[in-house]
Design a protein that fits this description.
By secondary structure, the protein is α+β, with helices and mostly antiparallel strands. It folds into 3 domains: 104 residues, Immunoglobulin-like; 214 residues, C8orf32 fold, CATH 3.10.620; 84 residues, Immunoglobulins (Immunoglobulin-like, Sandwich). Strands 1, 11, 12, 13, 14, 15, 16, 17 and 18 form a 9-stranded antiparallel β-sheet that branches. It has a 5-stranded antiparallel β-sheet with strand order 8-7-6-9-10. A hairpin with a 2-residue loop joins strand 7 and strand 8. The longest helix is centred in the first third of the chain and has 14 residues.
Length: 520
């Protein structure tokens, strides 16, 4: 049984009012990497020898800042990689022949290529292709961007993390800065009337409307600026990468932040943020209003978008990341298998630290909190196990969490509940949801999801009510005779889930009190 010890309330730096913008929701697929390919570790001293010519170049120039920037890159070259494959080359050839290719054609050609070629990906270390000259040219490019007037407010630390890097994700290295010099809208003449960072980012973001945003397609691996522009279509992930390339080319420290999954809806989302004077100014790629974001949008009769966790993609290795802490000692969910993400949830919403205590020792080193995505429990955050307790830091409030352990082998992986779900309320208080199997009640259901007319109970449709007791258990099925359902002899004080077995995809968990559904 689980005992909630305490929560620690934290101040938050930014809490934006959600505005109505075009939502491009996405779920970025994780590429699984074989364990045998993970031993790419190299020391800083190794890279100093390999790139001694670049070091000598800046030492000869007596440019201490550029030398310091080079050392920053070398310190973070460990496990920088990209992917190659025969089928990717064939796919590139197939789509490069069409300048105006539709999203449907991109999907069709990708599916066709995968049917012909083996779909294995080869992981290539960046250092296989990065030369001394490449590093010198990239550093010179980054420092050239510091000549822009808005760069005066940028610390050298943020410059190194968010402007200097030669890549945005796991794309094959290219001299994208050189490519962007040919973009007319980024020329000095075009930017001469831009006076500060926020206006500069708005200027760039307003010019991405040509990009075809979609929830159905992304190029199968990260690609550089040239290819991203050539394809011209993708989800919020690809769009946020495009903005990052363009902004960094002119010295703007624009990052990519993401919610792996919404705290109370399906899917997740990627967006950009400008780091300006120690504050975070988030925005959607091609969206309006730099500095405002959909933290809690409540349209008419719509569920708000709630955030459990926000992570930031970084170039530097994060010592607090799960892979660094874990050191491959036990399997971990793919969401957190990344050394280069850091938790920035407290820059977006009020958060709490949560400690869970157990009567027996927990055998795992790490545990996870899940949120429900309309179908499944999805890992949202990880916590460190200390004998009989687990601590989870910076958890977004006003949602339901389920504590689990992650178990994986060669055949499958699964999330194993290790306690009851609980509500972390908006004021930081916690309530454990402990089903009472002895005390029964009648649950009146009027909706399966509080959005629009299609989510009301539809006469003639078949419905099933489930309750949580270590797993989802059925309280029975029935066909709606009207616009309300009455389920009798249902265990009380539970977490419930109503499903339309006839049609529709939108479903949501709820608790029940004062004769009404309370949605989470």
């Amino acid at each position: 049984m689980i005992l909630i010890l305490h929560t620690i309330k934290k101040n938050f730096r930014l809490y934006f009012i959600l505005i109505l913008t075009t939502l491009i929701s996405c779920k970025r697929k994780k590429i699984f990497i074989d364990q045998e390919n993970k031993d790419l570790s190299r020391s800083f001293e190794y890279y100093k020898i390999k790139y001694s010519k670049a070091i000598n170049h800046f030492q000869t120039q007596k440019d201490s800042l550029k030398l310091k920037a080079l050392y920053y890159i070398l310190n973070n070259l460990d496990d920088q990689f990209f992917f190659q494959a025969r089928w990717l080359k064939a796919y590139n050839t197939a789509i490069s022949t069409n300048k105006e290719i539709s999203v449907n054609d991109l999907i069709y050609k990708l599916d066709s290529i995968k049917m012909i070629y083996p779909t294995e990906l080869e992981k290539i270390e960046d250092t296989k292709v990065i030369t001394n000259d490449y590093l010198i040219r990239n550093i010179d490019r980054a420092f050239e961007s510091r000549n822009n007037k808005w760069a005066n407010d940028l610390s050298f630390e943020d410059f190194c993390e968010y402007v200097l890097p030669y890549k945005v994700g796991n794309e094959e290295p290219e001299l994208w800065g050189t490519c962007l010099k040919n973009e007319t809208f980024l020329s000095k003449d075009s930017l001469k009337n831009v006076v500060n960072s926020i206006d500069a980012v708005k200027y760039i973001n307003d010019r991405l409307h040509w990009y075809k945003g979609t929830v159905n397609y992304d190029y199968p691996v990260d690609v550089g600026y040239t290819m991203t522009k050539s394809i011209g279509a993708g989800t919020c992930y690809s769009m946020s990468r495009m903005i990052a390339f363009q902004a960094r080319a002119v010295g703007l420290p624009v990052v990519i932040d993401f919610a792996p999954s919404w705290g109370n809806r399906s899917e997740g989302h990627y967006w950009n943020a400008l780091i300006y004077k120690n504050h975070t100014y988030p925005f959607d790629a091609a969206g309006p209003d730099i500095g405002f974001y959909k933290i809690e949008f409540k349209g008419i009769d719509r569920i708000p978008y709630k955030i459990s966790k926000v992570f930031r993609k970084t170039f530097s290795i994060q010592n607090n990341s799960l892979p660094v802490q874990n050191r491959f000692s036990e399997p971990m969910p793919a969401t957190f298998d990344n050394k280069r993400i850091k938790d920035v949830t407290d820059q977006y919403v009020p958060v709490s630290n949560i400690t869970l205590k157990y009567s027996k020792k927990i055998s795992k080193k790490f545990s996870y909190l899940c949120t429900f995505n309309n179908r499944n429990w999805i890992p949202s955050s990880w916590g460190t196990v200390d004998d009989r307790s687990i601590t989870f830091n910076n958890m977004g409030r006003d949602m339901v969490y389920l504590p689990v352990c992650y178990c994986s082998n060669e055949k499958n992986s699964e999330l194993v509940p290790i306690g009851n779900p609980f509500i972390l309320f908006s004021n930081g208080q916690i309530k454990e949801i402990r089903v009472n199997l002895e005390r029964k009640q009648t649950v009146v259901v009027t909706k399966k999801y509080p959005e629009d007319e299609t989510n009301k109970i539809i006469k003639g449709d078949s419905y099933e009510l489930l309750y949580w007791s270590n797993s989802w258990k059925s309280s029975g099925t029935q066909t709606a005779k009207g616009n309300m359902l009455y389920f009798s002899n249902v265990p009380s004080n539970a977490l419930y889930w109503i499903r339309d077995l006839t049609q529709g995809k939108q479903e949501r968990i709820f608790t029940y009190g004062h004769d009404q559904q309370i949605w989470w």
